[in-house]
Amino acid sequence: MSALTFTLKAAPSQRIDCSPLTPELLAEKTLDQIKAIELVSGKQKLSVESLFDVAGDDTNDIHVANSTNKLDFIGRNMTHGKISVDGDVGAYLGLFMEAGEIEVNGNTAIYTGCEMKGGQIKVNGNTGDFVGGARPGQKNGMTGGTIIITGNSGDRTGDHMRRGYILIEGNAGDYCASRMVSGTIAVLGDTGAHLGYAMKRGTILLTKMPSRGITANFNDCGSHTLAFLALLFASFKKLDSQFANIESFSRVQRYAGDLAGIGMGEILVKI
Amino acid sequence: MVMKLTGGRVFDPAHGVNGEVRDIYVHDGRIVDPPTDGKIRSEIDLRGKVVMAGAIDMHTHIGGGKVNIARTMLPEDHAADVVARTELMRSGCGHAAPSTLTAGYRYAEMGYTAGFEPAILPINARQAHMEMHDTPIIDKGGYVMLGSDDFLLRMMAANDDQEAINNYIAWTITHSQAIGVKVVNPGGINAFKFNQRKLDLDEQNKFYGVTPRDILLRLARGVNELGIPHPLHVHGCNLGVPGNMGTTLDTINGIEGLPMHMTHIQFHSYGTEGDFKFSSGAAEIAEAINKNKNITVDVGQILFGQTVTASGDNMRQYAAHPHAHPNKWVCMDIECDAGCGVLPFKYKDQSYVNALQWMIGLETFLLVEDPWRIFLTTDHPNGAPFTSYPHLIRLLMDKTFRNEVLSKLHPEAQKVSHLASIDREYSLYEIAIMTRAGAAKLVGLADRGHLGVGGAADITVYTDDADREKMFSKPDYVFKDGRMVVERGDLIDVTWGTTHVVKPEFDNSVETALKPYFDRYHTQKMGNFKISDDEIVDDGRGSLTIQPLHKGGAL
User: Within an 8 Å CB–CB cutoff, is residue B411 touching chain A?
Assistant: First the structure.
């Protein structure tokens, strides 16, 4: 069995809703049936065949080649299997994803891992805003799973995040962990303005002090030795990420906030 | 050019027709006598079918500011229920708070041909009409909200005479293009602004010294004296409070025989007995309704599932906000007029309180004897979305089904209710009264809700089916003003209904006080407040139907 490969023929002019192309929805389908699937693009419906060259047969291992940032909703509601993408992807990568794995060799647009429940998304590139966030008006963002970003994340990373991990090897944008309910965001690089804005609970783990410092609505709680950090780093060992190679530490400076709200969130900075 | 509807079993309670086989002739949007020359353009064979007038929902929140707040606040409601466009219909979305177009299509597909928005704030009336203007097929109209507005309370505090108040009511109803007057938590919405968090029937508003009882009497008297056919539409005090049945009985007794419509009575029929200090007061309330012929009610039945409650009653909505599901809510003040509160809610069949609310509603339906004085509503979307009406009709018409649903509810709630022992089942004739003839009479629609000669040809045709839910979900045909809009349950044509209003007479001198009041306190000038007939008619898509007044004057 070889990976089921969708090679985009030409850059589309309209956005394309790729949500039908997941392992569970394609399972048991023949190549001809897959080619005939209609994808919504703007106000039109276009067949898979007219957009992609399709080859391969393993619906549990889907590959999208030559992708562009117009391909939205890749891996929506995915429950198993793997999707790998070469090129950029559009908005809502892994929306509502429950399990399985998505890997993107390129950049993603807004709402990567929006309201995901489990599984893993790895972006070998940069992400747009609202990584692991909630759709507009919704109360909870991602509720489980892991998002690894090798580049930088956009603004509002982890907005309304409820559980799970967002691991950023580069820098995080402004309003990182805004309105975060709980969960963990770790950043190896720098963070932007308003870190932890309206954060309720949850943890932001930093390996160095942000260049802008900590905002006034976080309270310095002093230095701590936190035993759980060693366990956390041990759990990173299995990941294909720089986080697997971090030298374990447990001494951190702890800041609690956002004190404009219930103030039960924390920023931990390595010392 | 006459269309003949042949051989259907006609249920037309307005003319006492109960399931008799009749032919109906339609010409130019109206029901007519058989043509003397015998010329028939087309004939539809309805033998064996059930024929009724188009149904009328006399209390449904389909327009106005609070519905838009609900829409804005509930993207999940929209994302979970998306309707794609077709060649005929435009796209839409929403389960509890559907978009205007979708609401119109869904009503028509269920055989409804009219819906009345019960809470039009005068200052927001234009927007409410614009939303209703965008609701296709069904006729619409609204009840304008008074009773917590600063202008009226000032008049009452100054002890102005009844005639001045009548002029103000008539002026407001005319310029907001309404068909009736509603009062929501009389004076309570206003008292909330003075930090009062509850207001009983005889409790004074801190600022004006006016009680809800005074407000109800003044407004009910005004509506009656002006000859407005729809009695004062009352959303009473203490909505949802255990023990509020006492307030409701006081309200019924305190209105001094004036006509009064008490809306979503289910929410006002609670006792405080039992271990949970929450019990059914339906039997006592129903007895009072049976005894007082001046009272009409609609039920506001709850049905289980996710919905949103949208109400002008910010006092009670504020008190209920800890129960919002999902946890988000809005309460707001709206100028000098009133306020509103919107909070999403999930009724759960395994909740003691919700299960009992369900039973109280059904008990009320079954214990009120006169179907001409009780109306089928869920207070859409407060108790449940209007799309659940067929399910509700089945609950009323099918005792076995009702008891089957009942047996699955919270066990403690089952023990305290007598619902299982009530044998009554509604007949098709009674359903036709509740949803057609009675509703038209109550709202004051002379030419709707019946199938007599001269009436509008709003006709719904069903296939008789023992499963009443199935029967009432998908009518065979729906005619709106003589045009077939639904065939075999599917929408085939989109028309635009009329807006029903009344135009009571009044002395224009009321404007000498109102103009400076608008200039000083309101965000718009009095001239802009007035909605002209042309605005309703628009480019011809809308139209205005002025319904006749009753004989007015003091009782």
Answer: no
Give yes or no for B555 touching A (CB within 8 A).
Answer: no
CB-CB contact of B238 with B244 (8 Å): yes
Q: Is residue A21 part of a domain?
A: no
In this prediction, what percent of chain B has a pLDDT beyond 70?
100
Structure tokens at B117: 């928005």
% of chain A residues with pLDDT over 70: 100
Residue A80 lies in a domain: no
Cβ–Cβ contact A248 with B under 8 A: no
pLDDT, position B38: 84
Which stretches within B91-207 are classed as H helix? 100-109, 125-133, 150-157, 162-175, 188-193
For residue B277, the cross-strand partners are none
pLDDT, tens digit (0-9, with 9 covering 90-100), for B99-125: 999 999 999 999 999 999 999 999 999
Q: Is residue A160 part of a domain?
A: yes
Give me the DSSP letters along B196-256.
Answer: -----TTPPPTTT---HHHHHHHHHHHHHHHT-SSPEEEE-SSTT-TTTHHHHHHHHHHTT
Instruction: List the one residue out of B431, B481, B316 whose CA is nearest residue B382.
Output: B316
Residue numbers in A near B82 (CB within 8 A) = none
Residue pLDDT, tens place only, B221-246: 999 999 999 999 999 999 999 999 99
Burial of A106 (0-12, 13-18, 19+ CB in 10 A): middle
Is there a contact between B76 and A137 if contact means CB atoms under 8 Å apart?
yes
Q: How far is B384 from chain A (nearest CA, A)?
A: 22
**Is the pLDDT score of B553 beyond 80?**
no
Domain region containing A258:
110-270
| Full-model pTM | 0.89
State the average pLDDT over residues B489-503: 96
**Neighbour-count burial for A40-73, b at 16+ CB within 10 Å, e otherwise:** bbeeeebebeebbebeeebbbbbbbbebbbbbbb
Q: Is A47 in CB contact (< 8 Å) with chain B?
A: no
pLDDT-derived band at B554 (thresholds 50, 70, 90) equals low
Residues of chain A with pLDDT under 50: none
* Identity of residue B156: M
- Measured from the Cβ of residue B529, the count of other Cβ atoms closer than 10 Å reads 18
Closest CA in chain A for residue B325: A139
Of B72, B79, B326, the CB nearest to A139: B326
pLDDT at B551: 87
> Where do we find the tokens 């089928």?
B376
Domain assignment present for A248:
yes
Q: Under an 8 A CB cutoff, do A135 and B79 touch?
A: yes
- Cβ count within 10 A of residue A202: 21
**Cβ contact (<8 Å) for B76 and A136?**
no
Per-residue confidence (pLDDT) for residue B133, from 0 to 100: 94
Using the beta-carbon criterion (under 8 Å), do A139 and B73 form an inter-chain contact?
no
- Split into its structural domains, chain A has a count of 1
Residues of B with Cβ-Cβ distance to A135 under 8 angstroms? 75-76, 79
Of the candidates A18, A157, A26, A31, the residue with the CA atom closest to the CA atom of residue A81: A26
Give all domains of chain B, ordered by start, each with its CATH number: 53-499 (3.20.20.140)
Any chain A CB within 8 A of the CB of B327? yes
User: Quick check: A136 and B75 CB within 8 A?
Assistant: yes
If you average pLDDT over every residue of chain B, what do you get? 95
